[in-house]
Structures are given as C-alpha cells and as structure tokens.
Specification:
Blueprint (H helix, E strand, L loop, with lengths): L1 H25 L1 H6 L1 H14 L9 H20 L9 H25 L6 H11 L4 H11 L3 H33 L9 H15 L9 H26 L6 H17 L2 H4 L4 H19 L11 H25 L3 H13 L4 H8 L5 H26 L3
C-alpha cells in the first residue's frame, strides 16, 4: 500500500505541471499569472490541507533534490555564447551585472541585520537577478536554504518584478529615452513581424513533437548526457570534504553544461531547455508542498521585501547612471535590465513595447550569459556578504 501511495504521489507531482501549462496556453489570464506562481499555489494547498500522506515525507526530499541537478545541464545545453555586437550591447551586459552586484550589497548593508541568513539570501538574489529561476533553485540547494525562506523570496520576487515591469511599461521607457542616447532607427513593418514571430514562438507549446519517434530519441540522448554529467559532478564533489559537496556538485554541473553547449550537435537539439524547465516546474510544486504556512513570517518578511526592492530598483538606477556616463543606448540599457531582473522570456514582449527589433537578439544573448554566470556569482556573493 505504501508503494502504491508513493507511485501516485510521484505521478501527481510530475503530471500536474503538464496540466497547468496546458491551462496557461488555453486561458490568456492564467498565462499572465504564469505557471510558476500557479504551481506554488497548488503545492502550498497540497502541503497544508492534509493531502500529503504523513508516512511519505521522503518523496518530496527525493524529488526536490533530484530536479535541480537534472535541470541545470539541460537548460544550458542549447545556449549560444556568441557575444558579437555593438559597444552598447557589451557595456549594457557588463554594467547591468555590476549594478545588480552593487545593489545586492547595498541592500544587505541596509537590511541584512534584520534578516536571518541574509548572506545566503543575498547570494540567491544575485543569482536570480543575473540569471533566472533555475539559478534561484540551484542556489537554494547549494546554500542549504529552507523551503519557507525560498517560498517567501519567490513570493516577494513575483510582486517586486511585476512592479518593476509595470514602471518600465508605464513611464520608464519614455523617461529614459529623454536623457540617454537613442540609437534605434525607424520601426518598420518587417521589424514588427520579426518581434511578433518571437512572441508567438514563446506562446507555442514547446513540447509539441516531443513524443514522436524523433523527439523521444532526442530526449533519450539529452537525458543520457545529463545523467553522465550528474555522475561525473557527483564523483568530483565526493573527492572533497563533506561540507563542500553541494557547492562543488552544482558548480560542476554548471561548468559541464556550459562546456557541452559548445558541441554543435548538443546545442542544436530542440528540447533541452524545455525539458530542463519542466524539471524546474516539478521542483516548484514539490518545494511549495514542503512549506508550512504557519512558519511563513510575512511580518518579519517586511525587511526582505525592502531588500528585494533595493536590489531591483537600485540596480535599475545604477544602470541608468552607468548608461548616462558611458553613453549607452537607452533601449539597450532597458532590455539588459529586463533580461537580468525578469529573465530572457520577457525580452520579446519588451522589444515589442519599445518597437525596437535591434534589442531582441542582444537581450536574449545577455540572458544566456546571465544563466551561465548566475550560479558562480550567487555563490561568491554569499561568501562575500559573510565577511561584511
């Protein structure tokens, strides 16, 4: 009976994200909320209204610990790290990353004394605001952050990121164009079609064709390579003291995933990113089901909210200052900031809002580099903040 319950629970955690993704594609208003937030809400409900069998707590630990190591290499396989482009693109990438680092340190100095495990949280914010959800999940595992804290950071991040995006769309784009250089040319019908194509591409079912003979074969190769990388990374980590295992393991996964992205046959496989992202969706619902609502300190989280506001809007302000000094194109500065704070999937939407096709590819490229660097930068930041 216990094995049967175990199978039912694992199947539920693995299949619910597929249902949520289907609903998000069918209903536009759900798509705007996003699958991650919906999965967090479902997970919280599962974990807090008695749906979890008490004799099977190990299922959640096994799934949550397995999903992130599988996702990291898969999401990096398809990355292309070509950094050819304009002066503004390169400067926007560098100054955007520096701005996030400075803002996280400033937020730590302002609020760190009021927040438990503030150095770890600073590391996680650095990872998510230079990369994305995958980096946040990886750093949670690497730094040993508890589920309640992780869920609180995610909740506040969704709110602050929404406020940030609303500000840019309402007045930010026009405001920055008034006192920063503008390099973009006339917006043509061809440009509009290019951007619209990217937006439609993002709304398509990325798993369509995965269950064909060709798709299954490709998925098998990707998972086989991923398991090999996981095994090698675990072997390397086991050679070091126990306290360093998770840190070395995650960084090794990241390094080997990046290395494999330079192999053309691996990089050109279509489903690597989306399979990896599906593992992250499973991770989201499982972690949320482990969180105890009675332990969520929303009152004490006031300081954490302040920290996130400084990290997000502080980094934007610093990027504007850098752009003014270094004469970086206003739209390139905005797209770099959006890529870092909201992650690459928001780039086509922002390019459409700015009516500027020229920032589309640079924005996606910056996002790829952010994904790759986020884990390293987040870990280094957590170590640095312990010294302050």
């Amino acid at each position: 009976m216990e094995i049967f319950n175990w199978i039912i629970l694992v199947c539920g955690f693995c299949l619910i994200p597929a249902g949520v993704l289907a609903l998000c594609r069918r209903y536009a208003w759900l798509g705007k909320i996003g699958p991650v937030l919906i999965l967090y809400l479902i997970g919280i409900i599962i974990g807090n209204i008695g749906l979890m069998p008490k004799q099977l707590p190990g299922v959640q630990d096994i799934l949550s610990n397995a999903m992130v190591p599988l996702a990291i290499p898969l999401m990096l396989f398809g990355c292309s790290f070509n950094m050819k482009g304009t002066r503004s693109q390169l400067l926007a990438l560098i100054t955007g990353m520096i701005s996030v680092v400075i803002a996280v340190i400033a937020g730590y100095l302002l609020f760190g004394s009021h927040i438990s495990d503030a150095p770890k949280i600073g590391g996680m914010l650095t990872g998510v605001y230079t990369g994305g959800t995958i980096n946040l999940a990886a750093l949670k595992t690497m730094l040993g952050v508890d589920e309640e804290t992780y869920l609180l950071i995610n909740s506040y991040d969704i709110l602050v990121s929404f406020l940030y995006l609303s500000f840019l769309l309402a007045i930010g784009i026009r405001l920055f164009r008034k006192f920063l250089p503008v390099e973009s040319g006339q917006f043509t019908k061809e440009d509009e079609a290019t951007i619209q194509k990217e937006i439609e591409k993002g709304s398509e079912n990325p798993y369509k064709g995965l269950f064909t003979r060709k798709g299954v074969a490709q998925a098998g190769k990707l998972l086989g390579l991923t398991l090999l990388i996981v095994g090698v990374s675990a072997g390397v980590a086991l050679l070091l003291p126990d306290g360093m295992f998770m840190t070395v393991f995650i960084l090794s996964l990241t390094t080997l995933g990046i290395a494999c992205s330079f192999i053309k046959r691996v990089r050109e496989m279509n489903y690597s990113y989306d399979i990896g992202m599906y593992f992250i969706y499973i991770f989201c619902i499982v972690v949320a089901s482990m969180a105890d609502l009675s332990k969520l300190d929303f009152a004490g989280g006031f300081w954490m909210m302040g920290y996130l506001l400084v990290a997000v809007f502080g980094s934007l302000l610093l990027q504007v200052i850098f752009a003014r000094i270094l004469k970086i194109d206003s739209d390139m500065m905005v797209i770099a900031s959006v890529t870092y704070i909201n992650s690459p999937p928001f780039v086509p939407m922002m390019a459409a809002a700015m009516k500027n096709k020229d920032v589309l590819i640079p924005g996606l490229t910056i996002g790829v580099i952010g994904y790759a660097i986020g884990n390293y930068l987040g870990f280094l930041m957590s170590q640095l903040l312990t010294l302050l």
